[in-house]
């Protein structure tokens, strides 16, 4: 039986009781400078930790953001850190907590792979490879209750307007 490297595509990487798995990023339209990545963080039943930083070789800056609906408006805010409780699975997903990639060095194309490094207070850095999926993809769970907008319709300051289209939507 062949052993896969810890950062193998689609596999998880584990350090000191913290596992990062199911990482993926959403494809970006040409010219976009902001992307998003999603993944799962699991802790063993005896492990608590704190996610303190994220980075990627494809972006100048990466941050964890939280999304929430307030009065029908999608709000996004940056999280400085996320506390992880023992035996917990934290899912970073579309319309929830997620990783924002700023100042992309090139567009994220479907089928490509993106390197992500998550830094934890105790477990240290954990590197994973995220496969790039289509712009409307909602992740490995296959949830497609998507409003039809794309990443461009969500401005960085958190306002989301369904009537904002950028010429790439065909009605």
The CATH superfamily of the domain at 18-133 is: PCu(A)C copper chaperone
Q: Spell out the helices and strands N to C.
A: EEEEEEEEEEE
CATH architectural name of the domain at 18-133: Sandwich
Instruction: Please state roughly what percent of the residues sit in beta strands, choosing from under 5%, 5-15%, 15-25%, 25-35%, 35-45% or over 45%.
Output: over 45%
Oligomer: single chain
Overall geometric form: globular
Structural notes for this entry:
With 171 residues, the protein is an all-beta fold. The chain has a domain at 18-133: Immunoglobulin-like (Sandwich). The protein has no helices and 11 strands. The chain has strands at residues 13-15, 18-26, 34-43, 49-56, 59-70, 73-79, 82-84, 89-92, 98-104, 113-120, 124-133. Strands 1, 2, 3, 4, 5, 6, 7, 8, 9, 10 and 11 form an 11-stranded mixed sheet that branches. Strand 10 and strand 11 form a beta hairpin. It is globular. The model is unreliable at 1-9 and 142-171 (pLDDT under 50).
């Amino acid at each position: 039986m062949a052993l896969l490297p810890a950062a193998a595509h689609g596999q998880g990487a584990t350090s000191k009781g913290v596992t990062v798995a199911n990482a993926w990023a959403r494809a970006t339209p040409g010219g976009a400078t902001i992307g998003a990545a999603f993944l799962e963080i699991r802790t063993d039943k005896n492990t608590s930790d704190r996610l303190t930083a994220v980075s990627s070789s494809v972006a100048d800056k990466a941050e964890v953001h939280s999304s929430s609906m307030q009065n029908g408006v999608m709000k996004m805010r940056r999280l400085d850190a996320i506390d992880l409780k023992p035996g917990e699975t934290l899912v970073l997903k579309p319309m929830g907590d997620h990783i924002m990639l700023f100042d992309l060095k090139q567009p994220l194309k479907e089928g490509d792979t993106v390197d992500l490094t998550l830094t934890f207070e105790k477990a240290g850095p954990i590197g994973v490879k995220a496969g790039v999926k289509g712009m409307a993809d909602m992740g490995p769970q296959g949830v497609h209750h998507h409003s039809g907008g794309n990443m461009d319709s969500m401005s960085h300051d958190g306002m989301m307007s369904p009537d904002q289209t950028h010429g790439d939507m065909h009605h």
